[in-house]
Amino acid sequence: MYVDWGDGTMDEVDGNVSQLAHEYSSAGTFRVRITDNITSFAPSYNNSTWYSTTSQNRYTFKNVVRAGSRCASMPTYAFFYCTALSSIDFLGSSWTGLTSLPNYAFYYCTGLTQLSSLPARIKTLGSYCFQYCAGLTGVQDLRSAGLTSLYNPYTFANCANVKEWKLPASLTGTYFGTYEFYYNSNLSAMQLPASLTGIAGNCFYNCSQLKSITIPSQVANIGANAFRECP
User: Is the pTM of this model over 0.70?
Assistant: First the structure.
């Protein structure tokens, strides 16, 4: 496997990419390219020096251009606080084995501007997966994804600039999780899936622009404060 770090240096290594460490000489944003097949992509918050310092590493990891076709997993905190990460194209056709995103995968990735590249193979999203992704704006269309559930809490919490979420028809989970869309303060439109039977507490708490929403007739349970501080 080869990793081009985007600063004129390149490493070759066998096995898991989490074994790699790279120290940038100065703060900035760098485009990282990964070639060849790898079995796991894991620049995890706990074991990678990519995130060891704010000044040089945490804000420098910008975009994985390509990953190997055998990649089937991503660790918790994979891209935690990567504020310069601008796209998630690496989740495309190369990552054929990846079917879920873990907890905190893109937490506070404020540079992300769209999620439309989530492929159909992604079935579930972990807790806090896209929390504080303030760079997401306007309409976020997830209909290309194969999501089956949005049960985990805080998945899209604090995405304050999204005006509308368009959800895939594949969504068959019966509940929206607690604080799922918490503080989506610009959210004004959303069509709830026909399969929905319950909305957990605080789900839409502080969605202060959500003036109208149609709740499917089969919804039997709405948790406490689910629409608190909505107009």
Answer: yes
